[in-house]
Amino acid sequence: MKFINFINNLDKRWIYLILALCIIIPFLFPVGFPMKTTPPVKSIYDFIEDSIPEGGVVLIGADYDPSTMAELHPMAKVVAAHALSNNLRVLFVTLYPQGAGMAQDVIDNVLREWNKSNPDNPKELGKDITLLAYVPGVSAVVLKMGEDILQTFNEDGYGNKLSELEVMKGIKNYNNINLMVELAGSSVVLTWLIYANGRYGLKMGIGTTAVSAAEYYSYLQSKQAIGMLGGLKGAAEYEHLLDEKKVYGGRKDASIGMDAQSSAHIFFIILIILGNIAYFVKKRKEGK
Amino acid sequence: MFVRRTLPLLVSAVFGVALILQFFVPHPASKNFYNMMLDWLIIVSAFTYLIAVQSTVELHFTKIKRKVEGWQYSIIVLIALFVTAFLGVFGGAFMPTTLWMKIFPSVKPSDTTPLMYTYLYMQMPMQSTIFSLLAFYMASAAFRSFRARSFDATLLLITAGIVTLGRVPLGEFIYKGLPDVVEWILKYPNMAAQRGILIGVQLGIIATSIKIILGIEGKYLGGGK
Amino acid sequence: MAISTNFWIWIAALLTLAIYSFLYKDNPFYKFAEYLLVGISIGYGISIYWHNTIITKVYNPLVYDKNFLVLIPLLLGLLMFSRFFKNVSYLSRIPIAFVVGAGTGLSVPSSFEFLFKQIYATMPLKLDIGSLIIVVGVISTLVYFFFSLEHKGFVGKVSKVGITFIMVAFGAAFGYTIMARVSLFIGRIQFLLSDWLGIIK
To answer: Any residues with CB less than 8 A from the CB of B44 and at least 6 apart, and which?
Structure first.
C-alpha cells in the first residue's frame, strides 16, 4: 500500500528527470538495434532509386518549422541526398515563411556534406538544387505551380531569376516534376493532395510527423500518395536504405536517436502500467 | 448598407461561382482568367500577414503604455522584432544584399546572412525546445490520466501500447512480427476510422464553402452592420 | 570531439536550457526566452515577406517588367489597411471577401474530386478480410458521427461498431503521438550532447 501511495503522490518532476535520463543514457551507450524497413518508406525510396531517369526532378515541400524539425529535418536531408546521389535535380518549395529557413538549412547542410564525401561529383546551388522563393497564398500557389512554376515564383529564395538558373532548365509545371515529397505535420499535406495531385496529377510521397502518420494511411490506401515516412522512425529507415549505397557521409540524425526512442517508449509503457495499477488498487480499496 | 455588407457578399459570390464554372470550361479565355485570379490571390494574401504583424505590435505597445503586469517582456518582443526585421530587410534573407556587402566589404555572397544567424541559433533552438516540453507533459499525463476505465478506453490503451512498442527497433527485437502487426492495425481498422472522419470533415468543408458562396455564411466578414 | 567554441552554439545552448528551466518551475529566464522567440519569429517573417514577396512579386514586376496588372491586387491588398481607420474600416471587407470567395470557388470542385477518390478507394475491389474491415469501419464511423438519426436499435448497434474502430484509431494516434513528442526531445538532446558539449558524434 505504501508503494501505491508513493505513486499517487509522486512529484511529476521525478518523472521528468527519469524521462530525460532514458533519453540521454542511450546516446552515451548506444546499442543500435537492427530494424526492418516498412513498405511505405521503401516505396518512396524505390521510386527515387529506380523510376526517375538521370536529370529528373524531385520537388521537396518544406512545410514545417522548428517545432517539428526534429522529425522532418532528417527526412528532408536524406531524401535530398538520395536524389542528388542519383544525379537528380532537387527543388525545395515552401508555403510558409518558416519553412524557407528550414529548407535553406537543409540545402546548406546537404551540399556541404555531399561535396565533402564526393569531391569527384560536386553539386552546386542553382545547378543541382535550389529553394523556390516563399510566396504566400497556400492553395493559390499550389495551383499556380501546376500552370507555370517560373511565373509563380519569378525568383529563387536567393534573389536569382528562375529563368536563368540551370536547375530550372526544361521545367514548366508539374508535368516536368517526377516526384514530390511533401514534408509537413499539418493539414497542408491535404492542400497538396487535393490541388497538386488531384487537379494536376503530380506524383506524391509524404513525410510527416508521427502525430499525423496514422491519419495519412487513408491517402496511401487510396494511392493518392505512393509512400510515407512517418516520424523519426520513418526517417531512420530511409537513412538505413541510403546508407547501404554508401554514397553520402552526412550525420544520420534519425538513426542515432533510435535507441533513445526505444528506451523512452519502454518508459512510457511502464508509466501507463504503473498508473493503472495504482488506479485499480485504489478503486478496489475504496470499493471495500 | 450596400457597401458594408451586400457588396462584400456579392464579391465573394461572383468570384466563387466564376471559379467553380471555370473548372468545367477548358476555353483559353477561362484558363487566362484562372491564371489571373491565382496571381491576384497570391498578392492580396501577402497583406494578411502584415495585418497580423500590425496587431501584435499594437498589442505589445498597449501593454507597455498601460504598464500591464509583465510589460517589461513586451519590450523584449518589440526590440527583438525590430532588430530582426532590420537585419533581415537590410542584410538579406538567405543571401547578403548588395547594400550589406557595400557596408561590410568583407562579406561574400556565399556568407550566412545576419537573419539566418538569428534563425539558426535563436529561433530554431527556442521553438524546437518549447515543443519538446510536450514529451514531459505527455509522460506525466500517461502516468496520471491514462486509465483503463471502460471497454473503449482499454481498447485505446492496448492499441496505443502495441503501436508505441511496435514502432521502435526494441519492439521488433522483443517480437519479430510486431512491426507487421502495427502495420496491419494502421492499414485496416485505423485507416477505416480515419477515412470515416476524413469524409465527414470534407463534407462539412464543402457544405460551408457552398454556404459562403451563396452568402448564407458571412461570419468571416466580422461583426457589425 | 570537444565542447564547442562557437559563440552562436553557446547562445543556442543557453536559450535551450533557459526554456528547459521551466520544467523545474516558471522563472524569468524562461519568460525572457519565450518573448524573445515571439519577437524574433515575427521579425523573421517580415524579412522573408519583404525579400521573397514584396520585392519579387510586386516591386520587380512593377518597376522592371512594367506589369501594371499587378496594381489591381496591390490596391485590393492595401484596402486591408483601412481597418485601422474607423470611418472606412468596412472597406477591408472587400479584399477579405475576394480571398474567401475566390479561394472557396477554387476549392469546391477539387474537394469533390478528392472526396470521390476516397469513397472510390473504399469500394471493395476484391473480397478479402481487409476490404471488409475497411468498408465496415468507414460506414460505421460515419454513422457514429451522424447525429441527425437517433442512435437507437440498428443505428445504435452500427454506431457502437463505429466507436470501436474510432478507439483503435485514437489508440494508434496516441501511440504515434508519444513517439512524436519523444522525438522532439531527442532532437534537442542531440544538439546539446553533440553540437554543444561534443560528447557524442
So the answer is: C73, C76, C77, C80, C95, C98, C99
Q: Amino acid letter at A74?
A: P
How far are the Cα atoms of A101, A181, C138 from residue B112, in angstroms, in the given order? 12, 27, 51
CB atoms within 10 A of CB B19: 25
**Residues 6+ away with beta carbon under 8 Å from C162:** B193, B196, C137, C140, C141, C142, C143, C144, C145
Does pLDDT of B225 surpass 50? Answer: no
Average pLDDT of chain C to the nearest whole number: 93
For the stretch B68-91, what's the b/e string if a residue is b when 16 or more beta carbons lie within 10 angstroms of its beta carbon? eeeeebbebbbebbeebbebbbbb
Q: How far apart are CA A40 and CA B191, in angstroms?
A: 14
Give the tens place of pLDDT for each residue, B79-128. Answer: 999 999 999 999 999 999 999 999 999 999 888 999 999 999 999 999 99
Residue range A74-93, pLDDT digits in tens: 999 999 999 999 999 999 99
Question: What strands lie across the sheet with A204-208, from one edge to the other?
Answer: A129-131, A89-93, A57-63, A179-184, A204-208, A228-230
Q: Does B223 score more than 70 pLDDT?
A: no
Could you tell me if A202 and A180 are in contact, meaning their C-beta atoms sit under 8 angstroms apart? yes
Across the range A213-226, mean pLDDT stands at: 96
Chain C residue nearest residue B183, CA to CA: C172
Grid cell locating C1: 570531439
A 165-224: CB under 8 A from B: 210, 213-215, 217-218, 220-221
Query: Residue A288: what pLDDT?
Result: 65
Q: Which three cell numbers stand for residue A194?
A: 487535393
Residue A99: which residues within 8 A CB-CB, separation 6 or more? A62, A63, A64, A65, A134
With CA atoms as reference, the chain B residue closest to A276 would be B147
Q: Indicate the class that CATH gives domain A39-259.
A: alpha beta
Provide mean pLDDT across the span C144-163. 92
pLDDT of residue C46: 94
Q: How many other C-beta atoms can be found within 10 angstroms of the C-beta atom of residue C125? A: 8
pLDDT attached to residue C117: 95
Residue B224 has a pLDDT of: 53
How far apart CA C78 and CA C93 sit, in angstroms, is 12
- Phi and psi torsions of B99, nearest 5°: -60, -45
Chains touching C (3+ CB pairs < 8 Å): A, B
State residue C112's pLDDT score.
95
* 8 A C-beta contact, residue A269 and residue B165: yes
Kindly determine whether residue A147 and residue B35, on different chains, have CB atoms separated by under 8 Å: yes
Rounding to the nearest 10 degrees, give the CA dihedral for residues B15, B21, B24, B27: -70
Out of A33, A100, A147, whose CB is closest to B173? A33
DSSP three-state, residue B225? coil
